């Protein structure tokens, strides 16, 4: 699939400023900016995964699992709080089965995305019920961002994860089968970790986090799960307790040949302790 990936430009501004972005308007503040990012859209080939078993979480930053889950694609919009605990339990059980090295797995977020027909030409504001696809190549957390997120989601429990080994994982799948704006993942072995990765302050309404953005490198190799069904799970690591393990940099990408309905997807964010 020939498409484009949105990278972060290697801007001179980062010599004097840290990269940052917000998810809310700041027009009412004189001189304020929502971001200091400059996009660097690059033509890339995103290859279809031919052998899902080839991909390893600890090598490539992502892997693929086939497992049955039960989540009503309508209830997740209208009854999110009521259905998320049961879905979390299913995902945690699947991960325990496939990754026995984890002693404890705790879900802390369920994000639903539903593409607006005008996306990406017009990105609507933040919605409580669902979000838009994320088209910038990124990983959700830096090593510092890991602890900021845990402190926010599990307040007062710092002593529990102190000096413990853990991974921050996402489990992503479509809510309904479609080839519209699939999730693309960058093989971690093709990333120059010294030159291609940029720390980014993610300023949210209720949290200041820190994530990672990706600069373009023609060595990068991108992949997607063609014809992904609702029981085909993409598992990727965003970061870990020491920031040393393979990460799954990812982005939603336009499929020029898409014929399916507008993309709807669901992802769970988890912390997995060794």
TrEMBL record:
The terms under GO molecular function for this entry are:
oxidoreductase activity
Lineage, top-rank taxon, reads Eukaryota
Q: Which family does it belong to?
A: Belongs to the asaB hydroxylase/desaturase family.
Indicate what this protein is called per its UniProt record.
CmcJ-like methyltransferase
Which species is listed as the source?
A: Talaromyces pinophilus
């Amino acid at each position: 699939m020939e498409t484009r990936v949105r990278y972060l430009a290697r801007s001179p501004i980062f010599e004097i400023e840290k990269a940052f972005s917000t998810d809310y308007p700041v027009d009412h503040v004189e001189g304020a900016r929502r971001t200091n990012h400059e996009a660097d859209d690059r033509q890339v080939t995103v290859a279809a995964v031919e052998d899902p078993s080839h991909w390893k979480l600890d090598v490539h930053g992502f892997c693929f699992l086939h497992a049955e889950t039960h989540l009503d694609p309508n209830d997740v919009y209208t009854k999110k709080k009521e259905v998320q605990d049961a879905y979390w339990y299913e995902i945690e059980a699947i991960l325990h089965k496939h990754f026995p090295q984890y002693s404890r797995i705790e879900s802390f977020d369920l994000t639903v995305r539903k593409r607006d027909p005008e996306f990406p030409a017009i990105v609507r504001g933040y919605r409580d019920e669902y979000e838009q696809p994320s088209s910038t190549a990124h990983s959700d957390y830096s090593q510092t961002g890991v602890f900021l997120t845990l402190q926010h989601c599990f307040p007062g429990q710092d002593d529990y994860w102190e000096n413990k080994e853990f991974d921050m994982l996402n489990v992503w799948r479509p809510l309904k089968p479609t080839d519209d704006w699939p999730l693309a993942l960058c093989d971690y072995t093709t990333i120059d970790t010294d030159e291609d990765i940029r720390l980014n302050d993610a300023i949210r309404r209720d949290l200041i986090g820190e994530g990672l953005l990706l600069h373009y490198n023609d060595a990068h190799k991108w992949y997607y799960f063609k014809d992904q069904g609702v029981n085909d799970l993409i598992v990727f690591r965003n970061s870990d307790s020491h920031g040393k393990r393979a990460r799954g940099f990812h982005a939603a990408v336009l499929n020029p040949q898409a014929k399916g309905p507008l993309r709807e997807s669901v992802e769970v964010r988890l912390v997995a302790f060794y």
